[in-house]
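Collaboration report, partner site 2.

Our partner group contributed sequences for two proteins of shared interest, and the home lab folded both. The records are reproduced in the order in which they were received, starting with the first partner submission.
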Amino acid sequence: MARQEFRLPPPNLMPHMIGLCIGWCIFAGLMLFLSSMNSTVAVASISLVGLFGVILAVWAVQREMAHVQNLEIALKRAEGQVVQLGTIMSYTNTAMASTDITGKIVWVNETFTELTGYSLLEVEALNILDVIIGPESDAKVVEQIRQCIKRQRSCQVDLLTYIRGSDKHWVNVELKPLHDRSGNISNFLVVQQEISKRKAREQQLARQAMHDVLTGLPNRQTFGLRLNVAMDEYHRSGQEFAVLFMDLDGFKPVNDTYGHDAGDKVLVIVAERLKQCIRSHDTVARLGGDEFTVLLTNIRGPQDAQHAADRFLKAVSQPIDIGEAVVKISTSIGVAICGPEFIKADDILDASDQAMYTAKKSGKAKACILPTRQVAQPPQENQ
């Protein structure tokens, strides 16, 4: 965008000239009055009037020129400051733009064009929202920015946006109203900062808080939350679900013989196999150690849970290549079907745990379904 050129206004001599004319007329009238009484005085008076007029004119011109020179110096300083400020804003690492009160862009710096992928000419007269939002931008956040412009208020939000013709990225957008000398809002300053790395760290921390670090499966906390949702849905609409509790058979000898790295590899492979056996709306989680749980939602009765358990038994029993050896393990599964006897999520989880212990006692590598409407008793220790 072209830099604005400063021009001085034409010198305003009128106030000084009016004052000079009035003063000169008074002085000339006085001299003429004196000259009417003597011819010698008349000649002297005319000379004095002319000299005085010349002196006054020279004084007025010099005064106005000094004023103009001061204005030129002040304007040159101001222009230099504007140029310096523009240079600083152009080379800062922060993307900046200025809009009118409707959000139409009137100025951007170079960082803004790099961050958005739009050139200087392309953004002229575009609305700021047309430039910074993308297909996956949060509609609530976009509406928040739109309302801030409409109500002429400041706001600061995190927005998922796009570099034109490139990948999506996260930016922090800050919108600030700018006021003119009268105190009225004349423009908005839009400041954008790239925060994709910060968002990635936040998402990673959030995932680690809700998922098992080793296998990537949902952890105990996440499983508990989803189990509570299933319980609420069952009590509200009668939608049935089942909880499967699994404990690996033969895992400890593998871990002791080949080391913890081999044991971790077994757990990762088992987790992947379990994920392949569930539907998109089911949940498989690792509670810790070699214990896994599965939440089956939208089932039609115990037969659906039995079929799922059969798939898990088959998947886990397949040989596992750990690099230095091929090992075989199995799993014991306890199954609990939702029912009125389970008041809390922990009740049905404990019931499935009890059923798992029953499966282990009856020979391992099998599933035991807790009879429906049977209140679970505390699990007994392995003999």
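Second partner submission, folded after the first:
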Amino acid sequence: MIKSIREQPPLKNEKLDRRTFLSRAFFSLGGGALFLPCFANSDEGKRLRPRSQAMKFVVKRSYILVENGGQTDWARHDPDLITYCRLEANGYWGVWTIRSSRPLTVNQPNLPKKNKANPGWHPSGKYIVFQGEKDRKFGNPFLSHPGMGGFCDVWLGKSDGSRFWPLTNLECALTLEETRSKPVTGVLMPKFSHSGEKIHWSQWRAPGPKGEKWWWEIKIADFIDDPDQPQVENIKTYNPGQGILKECFMFTPDDKQLLLAGTLETGLPEYAMDIYLLDLESGKYSNLTQTSTIWEEGCKMSPDGKKIFYGSNEGYEKRIDPKNPLGSRWADYWIMDRDGSNRKRLTWFNEPGHPDYLPGQTQAAVVSWCPDGQRLSACTGSNGKLSVRIIELE
């Protein structure tokens, strides 16, 4: 059983400075073991504001919090609470919460029987949104991995696990015969806005509308908080740049922009991922990293909106196999200012001889910030093993 974040001891045989990463999956997470409270009280009893402007932004330490887990989201309403997905004994992923040490989506008769992953909190703590896999009868299992979201819809659950609702029902081929008339579709990383009034997700189909291998779009919908039948309405489609690999990670703190990773410029390979800000009013986007040969993703903005934490294979880009880009990525964590300047490497998981080094091919994927801006729950994988890792900054 997993203990409370505050009670969790370090795992045995775990080095003080970071261990464990995945080699094949898109998004997972690795985590630390001892969580201190994210908020402290001032003399007036008020919550402290995020302190990122006073920090040096170096890694103080990192620990594994959960093995065989990934894709966390840190609750905004409670600094001692994280939701994540975990690989179950049946071979599928389910949604869990840390403090209760309880599976949210396991043995729920009204839920899809296969993968449930990429959970995200409503700011009130009342709901968790996630992607749930349809009952498909064919296809490569990697397509429905939590980092791909194939055959999935957007689902919503009460955070106590008492009720669940599908928010989308995409047309999707579930048998080989149906591929003659229907595409394979998927959704990825649904998350709430900071106001709780909207939900974003990435949505893809294969083949694309004009015969492309696949086609990615970004969806943003109004969330209708009906206690009997929550739903999404007014779904708006954003399709910046070319139609391959658009992964939306979060609304900015003011909910006016979307932080995403993708290959939006034409003429670039899929693995030339950059990080972008998409303005939701104008639909215009800005490329923050502008690196045509480097893979960057897993980006999250600090609670004060000043910094962006992300994964990058900078320094290892020549190791990419164009025939298998997802399975040949080495990546570490970096941080930069909101406008893409002042980039700084924070981990050296792939550097033999460094204290951070993890043997094998390590990938640094999506993270979630603690509300105080001083800790992150990280999605890491090494040698085929996923972990939830906590990274503490100073």
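Feedback sent to the partner group on the second submission included the following. Residues 29-393 form a domain with the Neuraminidase fold (CATH 2.120.10.30). The chain is about 0% helix and 40% strand.
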